[in-house]
Design a protein that fits this description.
It is built from six helices and eleven strands. Helices cover 30% and strands 19% of the residues. With 237 residues, it is α+β, with helices and mostly antiparallel strands. It is globular.
Length: 237
């Protein structure tokens, strides 16, 4: 496992097995005959996932355990061959150029994602066999259905921090209309659902360290935020 920010080794990792019996046998063997790595003794424990929704069907798939040196086009070519109806591919990153080894693949609906999950299982990517634990459902991009409005999260919160984002800074509204401060997010009305999907794909390809998701309506969201601010001020009075 690598650090979320710096991709440095965190000193532990996960071993996946075909079933519980194989995992129990391996853990018993490693505890009875411990191994040393670079002179350090290793400790073996059973992992219990904290996520309850990992296997809940969703329209987004996470392909994990990918080599950090794998190229975007390699994954793209596999998706075009195996599940050409996918809508977007994102190399998940905490910072620019800091790939985390996980690719998020979005589909039109849950049914398409479920078909792709079955299709990708057992295929080879960059000499790596994609097993069941490598392909899981991820965080959804919308609640009921995709809309014509996107929210871009994690945008710069200052003019200096926005330097590398200057190409789109003048196009979208990153500032609060009342305070004129950078908000760290923006809403983008794309005019149609198809345009929203294309815009989402562009952001995921060019700026994968930002998270993009569908929201109901940009105007409704702004009204909701304004209402919350008024409520907060009344509560402080």
């Amino acid at each position: 496992m690598r650090d979320y920010k710096g991709t440095t080794n965190r000193g532990f990792g996960f071993l996946h097995f075909e079933n519980d019996q194989a995992a129990a046998a391996a853990m018993k063997h490693l505890r009875e005959s411990p191994i040393r790595i670079d002179g350090y003794a290793t400790e073996v424990n059973q992992n219990k996932s904290k996520s309850k929704s990992r296997n809940e069907p969703c329209h987004v798939l996470h392909i994990s355990g990918l080599p950090l040196e794998i190229q975007y086009l390699e994954v793209l070519d596999l998706l075009k061959e195996k599940c050409p109806d996918f809508k977007s591919l994102r190399f998940m990153a905490a910072e620019p150029g800091n790939f985390l080894g996980v690719a998020a693949v979005a589909f039109e609906d849950v049914a398409a994602a479920e078909r792709a999950k079955e299709t990708l299982h057992g295929t080879t990517l960059n000499d790596m066999l994609l097993r069941e634990h490598n392909i899981a459902f991820g965080r959804p991009l919308y609640e009921d259905r995709p809309t014509d409005t996107l929210m871009l999260l994690g945008t710069p919160t200052s003019r200096d921090a926005a330097y590398d984002f200057r190409r789109v800074l003048d196009t979208f509204d990153f500032k609060d209309k009342l305070t004129d401060e950078f908000r760290g997010f923006t809403t983008v009305n794309c005019g149609s659902v198809d345009n929203a999907w294309m815009m989402l794909e562009w952001f995921n390809r060019e700026y994968p360290h930002y998270r993009v998701a569908f929201i109901t309506n940009g105007h409704q969201y702004e009204q909701s935020q304004a209402s919350r601010r008024r409520y907060h001020k009344v509560g402080q009075a």
